[in-house]
Design a protein that fits this description.
70 residues, alpha+beta, Double Stranded RNA Binding Domain, four-stranded mixed beta sheet, 33% helix, globular
Length: 70
Amino acid sequence: MKLTVCFHRDAESWWADSPSVPGFYAAAEDFSELVALVRDGLAFHFDVDEDRIEIFEQFEDPRTYLEAGV
């Protein structure tokens, strides 16, 4: 299952939403923690194993891609 997730960075944290899942949001202090929360939340929402979730990452600001160390 491939889902688009949009990652955002503000002064103190990361947050994500998904146009594929209206109303879905997750937030964390660092990017790797956020990705884990996103995978867990989407797997729970769709009632599937996390390994069935494939994330297509989008970044609000392309510079945050470099900050994420992806």
